[in-house]
Write a structure and sequence with these properties.
Layout (H helix, E strand, L loop, with lengths): L2 H35 L6 H9 L4 H26 L6 H39 L2 H7 L4 H40 L3 H4 L7 H27 L5 H33 L6
Helix pairs in contact: 1-6, 2-6, 3-4, 3-6, 4-6, 4-8, 4-9, 6-8, 8-9
Length: 265
């Protein structure tokens, strides 16, 4: 491939990325307008809350519980070798969970399960022309499909992040007690958690809860062809949602720690 061809290919890729970003932003704004209008099928939001939250609980609980046990065990192991003082393991771990690990790991788990589900469902409707049928009936696909999932995702991401954080912290406390005989009163000390930690974690949770259904729905609405197109849209949704969570975590953490000075670096 010549240099000119490579430059042209790069230009086409950049143009496609710019158009995709524009369309994604337009879908996000349209979804927010749909939330404000409140035109949702009765019971649809509750059904999506069950699908997103209840069906993801065990997945999130097992993942965060295992991560909590491993992190506390490894942290205590290293501290015991260096200083022998394990008094701050619990408080510092809780602070890290509240402001970062709890919301972010939960969102990554939801990006894989919920993101794939939304993209597959919307993509299947797109390739079977059900989306076109909704438009011909005067129903907005965004209001019908994306808005209930966004509201449900926002609510249940908060609920799952809280439960996941509690499970990870509790599993870590059991590990510290069993493996290192760490006093539970010393471990379960919440004095290190500040209002800034809670605020930063809440902002991340809300942002993730908004991003995952919009990106997944966007990928589903772009599905083309048949089952192969749906599979491609599902893969793009998982990758896009997971990447969005990682990027948003980096940006929000940077703003919170260094930009606004909310949390000590």
């Amino acid at each position: 491939m010549s240099v000119v061809s490579r430059i042209q290919a790069l230009g086409r890729s950049a143009l496609a990325l710019a158009r995709g970003s524009r369309d994604l932003a337009a879908l996000f704004l349209s979804t927010l307008r749909g939330v404000a209008r409140g035109r949702r099928r009765p019971g649809e939001t509750v059904a999506q809350m069950y699908e997103i939250g209840n069906r993801s609980f065990l997945f999130v609980a097992v993942t965060l519980g295992a991560i909590g046990m491993v992190m506390v065990y490894q942290t205590a192991l290293q501290l015991e070798r260096i200083t022998g003082d394990l008094s701050l393991v619990g408080p510092e771990f809780l602070s890290l969970l509240v402001q970062d690990f709890g919301p972010t790991i939960t969102a990554l788990m939801l990006a894989t399960r919920v993101g794939a589900g939304i993209a597959a469902e919307v993509g299947s409707m797109k390739v079977t022309e059900q989306i076109d049928a909704l438009r011909m009936s005067g129903v907005s696909p965004v209001d019908y499909l994306i808005v209930p999932r966004l509201v449900a995702s926002l609510v249940m991401t908060f609920a799952l992040a809280i439960f996941g954080t509690a499970i990870a912290y509790g599993a870590g406390g059991i590990t510290a007690y069993v493996s290192y005989d760490l006093n539970p009163r010393m471990y379960f000390d919440v004095s290190q958690v500040t209002l800034a930690d809670v605020g930063l974690g809440a902002v991340k949770t809300a942002t993730y809860g908004l991003a995952i259904p919009v990106i997944s729905g966007f990928c589903g609405l772009r599905a083309r062809g048949s089952s192969e197109g749906v599979g491609r849209a599902t893969t793009e949704a998982v990758i896009g949602s997971s990447l969005a969570v990682i990027i948003l975590n980096f940006v929000i953490s940077g703003l919170g720690i260094y930009g606004l000075g909310l949390v000590e670096p």
